[in-house]
Amino acid sequence: MQEQHAQRPLKRVAYRPREVAEMVGMSESGIRNLIKRGTLRAVQLDGRWLIPATVIEDKLGIRLDASPTWVTSSEVAETPA
Fold first, then answer.
1. Domain spanning 14-69 has what CATH number?
2. 67 in helix, strand or coil?
3. In terms of C-beta density within 10 A (0-12 exposed, 13-18 middle, 19 or more buried), how is residue 10 classed?
4. DSSP per-residue letters across 31-49
5. In the chain, domain spans
6. With 72 labelled, which of 4, 37, 78, 81 sits at a CA distance of 20 to 30 A?
7. C-alpha distances in angstroms, 13 versus 2, 3, 6, 18, 78?
8. By three-state DSSP, how is residue 52 classified?
9. Is-contact 24 15, C-beta < 8 A?
10. What is the pLDDT of residues 36-71, one digit of tens each?
């Protein structure tokens, strides 16, 4: 029998430029330009740019939480403490 481990929400380690653009209210091309100029650190993996979560939090000042993407804020509010 397998042990049941308490499930913790996982925090994503990187985001795509499109996702970051939506977070900050910029265009995707604007985010890509920041990457190209070296203003925003990103890594390229299999031809896709990924921006580390730590960069988003530190450089862009956006607080990323560890809530799973399938839980909405209204569901969190309804969850008993």
1. 1.10.1660
2. coil
3. exposed
4. HHHHHHHTSS--EEETTEE
5. 14-69
6. 4
7. 28, 26, 21, 15, 28
8. strand
9. no
10. 999 999 999 999 999 999 998 888 888 877 554 444
